[in-house]
Amino acid sequence: MDSSININLGGAEYTVPRARLGTHLTLETIHAELIDAAAEEDSGAMSDSLFRYISAALPDRLERDVFSQSPWYEVLNAFITIATMNLIDGEFAILKYARSDLLPVPWNHPQRLRISWIHILAKAYNWTREEIENLWVEDAIGFIQEIEADEQANKEFIHSLSEVAYPYSETTKKHKYVPLQKPLWMVKRAVEEVETLLDRRMLPIGVIHHADGTESEYEAVQ
Amino acid sequence: MEPMKIGAAIEVIKILKPHVDELVKAEDGASLIGILSKGFAKDKTDENIGRLLALMEGKKLDEINERIAANPEVSIVFMNLAGAFTVNPIPDLIDAGLALGILDRGWEDAA
């Protein structure tokens, strides 16, 4: 997880360490702003987002003049290199099956991403903001996944004690227990590939022209 | 000629955007200029030639337009464009557009 890369900007070389949680969340927030600016083709906002993104990743802030005078390909290369280095290492179910169609909550604001992560971890472990922002991203996601799993177990227990969990059926004239639905990331499993056999009568007949230029010929099964 | 700065590059990518699907099919540098020229003529946006030169050379649009008016021969204008794109290659600009989210695709190798 601990690594660094070197980037060139305006004739100078900068060492960029991999981002801890605090910096990672800043980069994610600025990246979202860059995507919004790109959707609106707002050149000024895009340039500003790129500057803030690269500057946030550096241990010492980047001078605006250095950024402004750098060739465009150095800026792009720095952005892509930093973004690639800070990709999340590892597969987490809570991210893999996260819903992408959710709209922002009514109380959303630009810093909500950072504050919500700190809120979840601080509430569970009583850590300080500095301790939380110093975590590696992968550790933070792992902790949050466990926190959410514990919360789900608590909800299911409370749900099982409530009459809401035992709806009355007019058909059977009885109350039947209906468990609380788990979130998708807690139930989804990888689909194992199953080898199936095809009926020979379903195979194609005649000359088969394959994509690689070769040919095969199958005759109908008698 | 020096490479563009990032702000100018973003503006150039925006000018190239409507023509990317044709540009990626180009077989060489000369055909790139031809594709752009045809695209601008079709869209009636010939002023984009001057804008491209101004952005890539780092000069004011008025200065470029005066130069084009003084030397309106298509071959000279195309030579200027080709020179500018040598320092700021179109394939790299298209890939940059994809990385920034301005474009939906990157450059494809004609080979």
Give an overview in words.
The complex is a heterodimer of chains A (222) and B (111). With 222 residues, chain A is mainly alpha-helical. Helix content of chain A is 47%, strand content 11%. Chain A has helices spanning 21-39, 43-57, 64-69, 72-85, 93-96, 112-125, 129-133, 137-160, 184-187; strands at 4-9, 12-17, 168-169, 174-175, 206-209, 215-218. In chain A, the strands form 3 sheets. Chain A has a two-stranded antiparallel sheet. A two-stranded antiparallel ribbon of chain A has the order 3-4. In chain A, strands 5-6 form a two-stranded antiparallel sheet. In chain A, helix 2 (43-57) crosses helix 4. The model of chain A has no long low-confidence stretch (mean pLDDT 89). Chain B has 111 residues and is mainly α. Chain B contains 7 helices and no strands. Chain B has helices at 6-16, 20-23, 29-43, 47-57, 61-70, 74-87, 90-100. In chain B, helix 4 crosses helix 5. The model of chain B has no long low-confidence stretch (mean pLDDT 87). Classes of the chains: A mainly alpha (222), B mainly alpha (111). The interface between A and B is medium-sized, with 21 and 18 residues.
Keywords:
heterodimer, A: 222 residues, mainly alpha, two-stranded antiparallel sheet, 9 helices, 47% helix, B: 111 residues, 68% helix
Give a brief outline of the structure.
The complex is a heterodimer of chains A (222) and B (111). Helices cover 47% and strands 11% of the residues of chain A.
Silhouette of chain B: globular
- Helical content of chain B (DSSP H or I, runs of 4+): 55-70%
- Computed CA radius of gyration of chain B, to the nearest angstrom: 13 Å
The span between the termini of chain A is 62 Å
Q: Percent range for helical residues of chain A?
A: 40-55%
Describe the largest sheet of chain A.
2 strands, antiparallel
Spatial shape of chain A: flat
What kind of sheet is the major sheet of chain B?
none
Structural class by helix and strand composition of chain A? mainly alpha
Q: Any low-confidence stretches of chain A, pLDDT <50, length ≥5?
A: none
What oligomeric state is this?
heterodimer
Q: How large is the share of residues in beta strands of chain A? A: 5-15%
Largest interface, Cβ cutoff 8 Å: A-B, 21 and 18 residues
Element-level helix/strand string of chain B: HHHHHHH
Mean pLDDT value of chain A: 89
Distance between the termini of chain B: 29 Å
